[in-house]
Design goal:
Blueprint lengths: L2 H19 L10 H9 L3 H13 L3 H14 L8 H9 L3 H4 L1 H8 L3 H13 L3 H13 L12 H11 L3 H12 L7 H20 L12 H8 L1 H9 L3 H8 L1 H15 L11 H29 L1
Helix pairs in contact: 2-3, 3-4, 4-5, 7-8, 8-9, 9-10, 10-11, 11-12, 13-16, 15-17, 16-17
């Protein structure tokens, strides 16, 4: 085929294909009423779509009605109930709106209890969700979906997300020790969490211990340096008199009290690295004060 023949064939093909890409002007985009009718006929996705539009417009009550229809029209795993329960929680109506589902759960529908517990966790209603999952975990409930890890796993994951690590670790271990194929994810999470807690525990700094009454003499010895320092900077007659005798007397009394108070100083005597410099400084300032007082008397005469 010659080049100009190939070009003519390409243009002819393009003309045939272009109408296929054009929108059909006879077809109309489904309007609000079409979506509403589809929702009322039981199509869940249309109920959620209208509910989202109503919620964007600020019509929370109407949105809740459509979300409720979506939840009721789609029984089973309750994933269609997530926007319904979330909006009900925002409006402060969660307890009333979830009452029918709670009633079915209390009537013995463990499958619904399991999915309801998971829905509560999605909207951060942790106490309600954990209440259902904890019971099902104890009773070794097996979800209908073989790919679902089960109530113990979801319960422990929820506890870990709120930094309740020890409880999460216990539940992961409990689920792991059942030795079921579905427990493997719990075993992996248990080992990972245990390693994290071990590392954090070994590197965490210890909290300071509260001061014991027998440590008061050492505290007094430390605090003595504060007024002594100011008396040294701004020497006055009364300050010099304090440094000359009361300060050394208080320092030695505190030291002797520390030495003879049961159960006695710690061994090895690391406390001496603090006590000896404090006593030396006190005696040094006392000698300095004595010299200043003598010089004052000479000047007065």
């Amino acid at each position: 085929m010659k080049p100009h023949h190939r070009l003519a064939a390409f243009v002819f093909l393009l003309c045939l294909l272009l109408p296929l890409g054009k929108p059909s002007y006879g077809e109309e985009t489904p309007d609000f009423e079409t979506y509403r009718n589809a929702c009322l006929q039981g199509t869940t996705i249309y109920c959620i779509a209208i509910g989202m539009e109503e919620q964007k417009a600020g019509n929370d009550k109407q949105a809740l009605e459509y979300y409720r229809l979506a939840c009721r029209n789609h029984p089973g795993h309750l994933r269609a109930c997530t926007p319904f329960l979330s909006l009900a929680r925002e409006m402060g109506r969660l307890e009333n709106e979830a009452a029918p589902l709670e009633g079915q759960c209390q009537a013995g529908d463990d499958v619904l209890c399991f999915y309801l517990g998971k829905e509560y966790l999605k909207i951060a209603e942790y106490p309600a969700g954990r209440r259902h999952l904890e019971r099902l975990c104890r009773e070794d409930f097996v979800p209908p979906d073989a790919d679902d890890y089960g109530p113990c796993y979801h319960l422990a994951s929820s506890l870990q997300s709120t930094r309740e690590y020890e409880q999460a670790q216990d539940i992961f271990r409990f689920d792991c020790e059942r030795d079921r194929p579905s427990a493997k994810p719990s075993c992996d999470r248990y080992q990972t969490l245990t390693r994290q807690l071990t590392v954090n525990g070994s590197t965490a700094q210890e909290k300071p211990k509260p001061l014991e009454w027998r440590e008061a003499p050492l505290l007094l010895l430390a605090l003595l340096s504060v007024p002594s320092f100011f008396f040294w900077l701004w020497p006055g007659a009364w300050g010099l008199r304090f440094l000359r005798l009361p300060a050394p007397a208080i320092a030695f009394t505190a030291w002797l009290t520390w030495e003879f108070t049961p159960p006695g100083p710690p061994a090895p005597r690391t406390d001496l690295f603090f006590i000896l410099p404090s006593l030396f400084l006190t005696l040094l300032l006392a000698g300095w004060a004595i010299r200043r007082l003598r010089a004052k008397r000479v000047n007065e005469f």
